[in-house]
Design goal:
The structure is a single chain. The protein is elongated. α9 packs across α10 and α11 packs parallel to α12. The chain is an alpha/beta fold and about 400 residues long. The strands form 3 sheets. Strands 3-4-2-1-5-6 form a 6-stranded parallel beta sheet, sandwiched between helices. A 6-stranded parallel beta sheet has the order 9-8-7-13-14-15, with helices on both faces. Strands 11-10-12 form a 3-stranded antiparallel beta sheet. The chain is about 35% helix and about 15% strand. The longest helix has 15 residues. The model has no long low-confidence stretch (mean pLDDT about 95).
Length: about 400
């Protein structure tokens, strides 16, 4: 049950609020933002703080500068985009919780917004250094974590400051946490899970945790070949994690014992080489040529999977069904995205590649919930806690 302090639990007028957001957005070679979704998702929290006449000090990381000041990882493009979206001044400081930051923070008035430079310019961020935590905490009076996408990291701005000052979660983080709490503990049934991607080892904990919660689990992507090999099928040159076959067998046995429907591809779009230009053909699981490799689910599998998606009251999808970067092998992923978009029920998408596929088709507004945190959402669905959530004050303290 969600029981963390939220922004609504504090009187915010005149308070300096240290707001941790996730502005780790993609930039092109010209340092222009190519996808501003994470910035836009933070706007409701910022607007709430403005309405409450708080003084807002924003902090975020961007990229991996590894504790060094690197101009290509400056938050300047982010600050500019935020100004455009909220139509208010946003002051970007030249440092992280240091002289320039404190100069602007001291002169703040209600409704002002200051953004510190990239947290990862300071090595104390990723090491959760106590001195850096102290400096960060001295910037504000209340800490608000709205960076769901970073809540799985034990960094200074995520865990350190939450433990040493009054803390809460923002509106975006609250929405994310309540959504995952609902689908893990009280999903509308039938509950269908789609898991794809290349490696079993990356999703094994997710699948294991959902076996007793989902009615149906459907596997796609290269990881399907390890499960099929565990069932004794020969799969030509398809990617198989041989060391994970015993683990796949355990999952299949557990699913059978629990009575969970566990579906694997019955056919595949296959080719002779991993190339966008390679000729493709459809082959069945039980008659897989030695010379081919599977790069997408086939039409029969797609029809089965879409039927289960259309009948489900809750669908969670993480991981593409094939090599969707190559157009010839994108149909499985694209058609699942379209089926999700047509559903009137609860549809949830997590994971960077899956979200990219949905956004590439411009279907993001037709999916009920798209998580802003790939690593954080995966960890929650694995049944694990998030350090950033654990650090925030409980409502009943």
């Amino acid at each position: 049950m969600f029981n963390k302090m939220t922004l609504r639990d504090y009187v915010l007028k005149g308070k300096k609020v240290l707001l941790r957001v996730d502005y780790n957005v993609p930039l092109n070679s010209n340092l222009k933002i190519t996808n501003d979704r994470r910035i836009r998702e933070s706007i409701p929290t910022i607007q709430y703080l403005l309405d409450q006449q708080a003084q807002i000090i924003i902090c975020s990381h961007l990229g991996r500068p590894e504790g060094k000041v690197m101009p290509e990882f400056s938050l300047a493009p982010v600050a500019e985009r935020l100004r455009e979206l909220i139509k208010k001044p946003v002051i970007l400081t030249n440092d992280v919780a240091d002289t320039d930051t404190f100069k602007f923070v001291r002169s703040m008035k209600d409704g002002d917004i200051v953004m510190m430079e990239n947290l990862r310019f300071d090595p104390g961020e990723e090491s959760n250094d106590p001195d850096f935590v102290r400096r960060l905490a001295s910037v504000g009076e209340i800490y608000c974590d709205d960076a769901f996408g970073a809540m799985h990291r034990e960094h200074a701005s995520v865990v350190g400051v939450a433990k040493v000052m009054p803390s809460c979660v923002g509106l975006l983080a609250e929405k994310e946490l309540k959504t995952f709490d609902k689908i893990l503990n009280d999903p509308a049934k039938p509950f269908v899970v789609l898991v794809g991607g290349s490696k079993v080892k990356d999703k094994i904990d997710l699948i294991d945790n959902l076996l007793d919660k989902a009615d149906t689990i459907m596997i796609g992507g290269a990881m399907a070949y390890t499960f099929l090999r565990a069932k004794g099928y020969n799969l030509g040159k398809s990617l198989v994690e041989k060391d994970k076959i015993p683990m796949a067998k355990q999952i299949l046995e557990k699913a059978e014992k629990l009575g969970t429907r566990f579906l694997l591809p019955v056919d595949h779009v296959a080719t002779t080489e991993f190339s966008f230009a390679a000729e493709s053909m459809v082959v069945s699981t039980d008659k897989f040529p030695r010379s081919l490799m599977g790069l997408d689910i086939g039409p029969k599998t797609l029809a089965i999977y879409k039927r289960f998606v259309s009948r489900a009251k809750t669908v969670f999808w993480n991981g593409p069904m094939g090599v969707f970067e190559f157009q010839k092998f994108a149909k499985g992923t694209n058609e699942i995205a379209k089926a999700m978009a047509k559903s009137p029920y609860m549809t949830i998408v997590g994971g960077g590649d899956t979200i990219s596929a949905v956004e590439g088709l411009e279907l993001q507004d037709k999916i009920k919930f798209i998580s802003t945190g790939g690593g954080a959402s995966l960890r929650l669905m694995e049944g694990k806690s998030l350090p950033g959530v654990e650090a925030v004050q409980d409502k009943f303290d």
